[in-house]
Amino acid sequence: MSLNETENKTIVKIHNVGLRYGTNPEVLKDINLELKQGDFYFLTGASGAGKTSLLNMIHLAHRPSRGKLKIFGKDIDYIKQNDMANIRRKIGVVFQDYRLLDHLSVLDNVSLPLRIIGKSEKYIQAHVPELIEWVGLKNFMNVKPPFLSGGQQQRVAIARAVINNPELLIADEPTGNVDEEMAKKLLFLFLELNKMGTTIIIATHSTNLIKQFKFPVLHLNNGYLTKE
Question: Distances in Å between the alpha carbon of 111 and those of 78, 87, 115?
Fold first, then answer.
């Protein structure tokens, strides 16, 4: 694949999408968005504006109520169930509620995506501890999530999301429970991934991060998406 083809590769394409839960009013309205390989966007909006719903839809936790959604060039209306798992493996997700496995150590939680795709234990031991140390949890590798603070759990969730160098990274308030210094460090981690070609969309309320890193901003207001 040539450099130009790589730069123009569309990762996510959303066309005239609406999303509602049951018979309730739409939470997303007439959404149009195209994310290309190497894009980096912040996503902003007041609480209840639909940020989490949009991110959930992009990582295929919800299907649109109307309109078209394509991920990695595939229309999700026609994706076979066995292909869905392969698509999800290309996506790293940082959830607001972290979704760590309480019976696994920090090391095993972060290693999980690598084990799912069949990486060797030698590979895991060569890469996972280094990332855990980088996010400031060197002394917690064998600790289980219930014994960690919220900020520590958040860093485990971020390490797990990025360990496999995903093609698409979706993060919902990934710096919400860490101090400003760690928030910047985590953003630099995302930046390094982005330099390697990962497409990134981060929901955040932090105006300081937005001002410092100066990536384009998507804004949701009452279900409508605009670019700032």
Answer: 31, 19, 6
